[in-house]
Amino acid sequence: MSHANDRLFDHKLAREWKLKKSRAEKDKRMTLQEAIATFVEDGDSIVETGFAYVRGPMAAYWEIGRQQKKNLVGIFTPGGMNTAWHEFGGLEGAHVAYVGVEMRGLISPFRRGVEAGTLKIYSEWSHGALSLALRAAEQGVNYVACKSMLGTDLMRTNPYVKEAKDPWTGEPVCLVPAMYPDVAIFHVHHADKYGNSRIWGPSVNDTAIAIAARKVIVTCERIVSSEDIRANPYQVIIPHYCVDAVCEVPYGAYPGDMPGMYYFDRRLQERVVRLEWKTKESTKEWYEKYILGTKDHYEMIQIIAEEEGMNVLEYMKRLEQLSCDASYFGLGYWGVGGERDWKYEEVAKRAI
Amino acid sequence: MSDVQYTPRELLACVAARLIKDGESVFVGTGLPLVGALLAKKMHAPNMMAIYECGAVDPEPRVLPWSVSCSWTTYKAPILLSMSSVFGHSRAGYADVGFLGGAQIDMYGNINATCIGDYEHPKVRLTGSGGANDIASLCERVIFMGLHLPERLPERVDYITTPGYLDGPGARERAGLVGGGPWRVITHLGVMGFDEETCRMKLISYHPGVTPEVIQQFTGFELIIPDDVVETPKPTEEELRILREEVDPCQLFCF
User: Fold this and answer.
1) In chain A, residues 203-222 whose CB comes closer than 8 Å to chain B
2) Residues A274, A276, A280, CA angle at the centre, nearest 5°?
3) Cys bridge to B162: A80, A272, B23, B111, which one at CB 3.0-4.6 A?
4) So where are chain B's domains?
5) Measured CA angle at B166 (ends B20, B186), to 5 deg
6) Class of B8-247 per CATH?
7) What residue spans define the domains of chain A?
8) DSSP reduced 3-state for A166
9) Are A57 and A50 in contact (CB under 8 A)?
10) Annotated catalytic residue within B10, B24, B53, B239
11) Residue B246 designated active-site
């Protein structure tokens, strides 16, 4: 099988694949285990959906970890905790616009992989340009001429985009080709059994990705009736005809944020990012305990809840409370880590 | 008022917030800019319209969120668009200010958020551009916020992730970039702008307790220091109260 990158910009191959997909309203419900086993193959390119740590399909990503898929190629706009796959041979390379956790800093497994040269960066992007690559696939255009990335090293370290002259004005433009990832997994609030998917919160790139990707898995908080979807189609961002599998996975975005439902487990994320994934060994330990050592997402949540001294319900309620009341500060997270990128003490010392 | 106590980061947030005018649209990058933008909105710029790369426009966030995309950021946004749309709207002319952070910024205002050291063999791999490149390419003027250390303000950045004035006068136009480029750099030591002729970074004001000499010492290149540099006004009690009680009560950022 050819490398994922050979298929990534092949619009003919992408079209051939989609011509073969059934348009029928077919019941596509299956278990998450089954969906991942069927539609995620070793060596596939897989594109991040949602905003990585916001409405990201985390349960599906952990399941990919459990099934020990190999040599995936990530497309990160942005990318988050699933880059830990790399430590277990799960992530071979990446097309990167952003990998990190914003205020919480860098993600160690990704950073280690790139610095050691074991995780290949195939191309550097800006969020805007990568979102246009996916949007171009959705809009049915070969490429888009945009004004991002020009004049910077991103152009130099991205073999897929090209600088050209706008044929009308003669101005430089950056040409971004349509991108067709192998796999996309979405986590949504509601889906019907055919795959029509409804969300709250920003769609980010999801509609574009659903059309661009060849294989599409939808995990949802709740399966709703098709009548419900047809009566209220306004927040539906993914149409059924591009969906291959529908899995009901409540709390599927945990430990990320699910708009309107539950918030980040900030303490867990802080702990993981700052401490538990700090070294290769500690990441391995964490992964073996929480991912490989559990049978599914819920066993993982149960272990974490118990570590917090709560049962699962109390614990999830707390995350739900955080989501609906932004002035609730039950989960203090300072005091974890204590290590900052900003070297403040050092600055103070040097200033004296 | 003269003995108001504050941390360097609180000062940074207050100074940044003051640069946002009421009624402006501000494309807010992640990290420190979130603090500055939120503070401005709760102070003198209630009609400021924030744009976030996840697709949220003009939300009313209550406290400092973790991400430019999370539920606390997008709270009460009247419209939720897609990523390519909000960048498109910036190109169209709906974004006045781009508000960014980053690891390094050089004398021409180019920002590095990709790697420290050689790209092929990086000493530190950073996050990558995210929306920063687009924000600086497409917004009308750009404000950068960060800490002031010689290695964070080198003569040339190790990797240009986000365009400033590239290699000097006229370079943005030659490259085909749209927006006006870097406008202000705010650090915990001072506020910098850019010389109109040379496009090089120049000092505008130094923070209380700091001198232009100290700022030069902490800068990895020769800073233009005009005669008319002034001291930055201290954070007011009102600014600090709003920052501590309403924007960042957890001391997520301003500690």
Assistant:
1) 203-208
2) 105
3) B111
4) 8-247
5) 30
6) alpha beta
7) 4-248
8) coil
9) yes
10) B53
11) no
